[in-house]
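Quick one: structure for this chain?
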Amino acid sequence: MSDPVTDPVHTDPSRTDGERLAALVAALTTEERIGLLHQYQAPVPRLGLAGFRTGTEALHGLAWLGTATVFPQALGLAATWDPELVRRVGEAVADEVLAARDRGAGRNVWAPVVNPLRDPRWGRNEEGWSEDPWLTGLLATAYARGLAGDGPRLRTAPTLKHFLGYNNETDRCTTSSGLPPRVLHEYELPAHLPALRAGAAVAVMPSYNLVNGRPAHLSPLIEDVLRAAAPDDLLVVSDAMAPGNLFGLQGFHPDGPTAYAHAVRAGLDSFTQDDDRPEATLDHLREALRRGLLTDADLERAVRHVLSVRLRLGEFDPGPAPEGSLDTPAHRALAREAATRSLVLLRNEGGVLPLRDVRRVAVLGPLADTVLTDWYSGTPPYAVTAKEGVAERVEVVHHDGADRIRLTSLVTAVAEPVSGEPLRLDGGEGDVFALLDWGGGAFTLRSERTGLHLDEGPDGTLACTAPGPGGWEVRQTLRLEAANPAGGPEGPYHLVQVHTGRRVGVRADGVLALVEEPGDGCPFWIDRVSSGALEAARAAAAADVAVVVVGDHPMVNGRETEDRADLELPAAQRHLVRMVRSANPASVLVISSGCPFAVTWADENVPAVLWSAHGGQEYGRALADVLFGDAEPSGRLTQTWYRSADDLPDLLDYDVIGSGATYLYFEGEPLYPFGHGLGYAEPVYGEPEAVVDGGRVTVRVPVANPGDRPLEEVVQVYTRQLSSRVRVPVRALRGFARLRLGPGEEAVAEIGFDAADLARWDTVRERFTVEDAPREVLVGRSAADIRGTAPLDVPGEPPAVRRGTWSAAGYEEQRGTALCPLTPERGDAVRFTEPGARLLFRDTDLTGASGIRVFANADRDTELRVHLDGPDTGPAAVLRVPAGTGPHDFAEAVAALAPGTAGVRDLYLVCEVPGAAVAAVTLD
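Got it. Here's what it folds into:
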């Protein structure tokens, strides 16, 4: 036990922060340092150091800690294309975090999420900003800056999530994201680095997955890239329970001490493991120190990162901590502004919108009279639904579009005897339930009498007690499993709980309960009391306009732990839209979702389509503002809406370049392109010009509003490189400008960017280069709606040729391979995983070369063949790789090149037998 310290240097504001931090770290004992490396940091009373907890969720408002302002989801905030608005939202969230410290809110906030939205099927799509890495970085930096503040001390300490290559929930802890060098440097890192370089984010959370076969929590990029980018000490916190995966699910290390030592050496500072029970984690660290796997210097470095953030939060300064405020009028107004400006008008044919001279509106659909919250939402102080927002203006008729049903079992029916008591079978006609289809085969049952949803009780019985599906383990959703292949649409069905796969059975006392054995399940028939789609269509026919509100439930079929299998709206919702449209041609489809949907039929048949992410507490009023034309639709998509999941590569294919993914490389016709969004006023663009001066590109374009309504336009500037030896983006966003023009006004939009932004990662030179190639600037309303082009002439470098030694991971093309670790600590190699797998290295200079070497590994004696100019030409060399003792046992294999081999050629490396890996290639 060390003695108390009087007048410690770390509390002396006359000293520099560096002096204060160094003195505090030096004063700690080894045991005290270890105690600071868990999410729940131990207090050190003798130094006046209080306990501290990392991790307050603040993705789009303060979450999990009671009432707080709920802003639109991050994807919705992104649709505003307004960094200043996003910054103001972040500032308001920080205020609420500070005000909720008495509820347990800590000042290390886990936001923003900066994973670029590579695939719209990702279950956490709603948490991100854009499929474009530059736009992701811009908007995430704005949000983080709002959270952190601009003062000399941090208001909160923002944490970027989740580093790296994380866009799948399916087997997320055991899948490996293959990131070739160009994808890493051109797509992934540009989303993560801007907030760090700006000092807006001061912490990073690695992701659950592996990257190139190595757990992301052990990535050498944490030290080599992230800490190099940050202007001050960077705190690295683990994701929840992820450290245990290193020697558990992932099996990358044999035990906890070995795994945790590697994590600390790789840059992890804080272990989010076992909730508020740190002892097992700390014991692993103590044992690692005892074995010599960790040094005192390793602990000192990690503790410095931890305490640096606390120092910059002002924790050790004299005086009170900063104050905040919760649920203020200003925050409510900001929530409405953000929700209004996040709405995107996808289609508007025939002038249905804005609504004029209407007296009665049918507001229909499963999302018409509810405001849904997601896993990372707070509890809103109130919520205005679409129905309520419209009803503040005109008469409204409503139906949720859900079928009303009874469940029967032969001669008995399911009844809800008393509110809150378990359902049971009895001899009466049974009670009525609404059957809601949320897609992916997931349904919920809602009591018609109480409005509450069927839920599992602690003893496995089933009662209508839940306000809706929710919780980390969603136990309110069921799937309908045919109990008899010869049955019809009425059944019989087994009701199966989605979360556990257990069937619903009937106990001896008649009570419905989940059963462990499938054979104990009870088949049920569905007796449809009324058709929700038909009732909604009748309501639509009796109204001037029909507004049908559909979308996803953020707790079902697309959420953390669950990816979507397709892009379709739930079948019941698709049927509802068709029925409403047939009943009233003046129909408006409103989609509220955290992800894109393939609404191809609606785009062809429904005159107006609007989208927003789940919009928070002011959603209904924001929607009404846009529907009735009080606000101009000003949102724009930050993600491509595809016509079908068939347009997407495999969910686990992270090579956006090779697979042609995202608007950058997709060459098909999307349903709605990146950047798309209409207004009620139509702009007229003039001819753009692009000027290059001193390494800066400035694009100017005149824009006019000839109409009689105000215009809100997002002028978007893209570039396209017209030739290259490698695949380059079809177009890439370089900047944008927002214009607000009154009727008859015009202005010149000016957008600038650095010529260096045109660089791509050169896998030969292993650095960014601007290629000497023709280019053009594209200016327009979206990535597909280009209104003008201009030539762009910037100086560049000629293509490089390969000579000497190069990394095998720098291939131009591959087939049947996977990236893997060279060693557990660092380095990448390429493993051949299919018969006939191959790598292509373009522009390889064989002049003067007589032999070739590879640094390779194999699980058996293996041959690698070298072919020139095509994979099926005669081999120019055959390399024999001996069997290694394990996956990291690499050795050299050497072969002579065929006589006469010369010139700059395309070099193929082909392996017929799966299992071998190559890390480097050398020409001798």
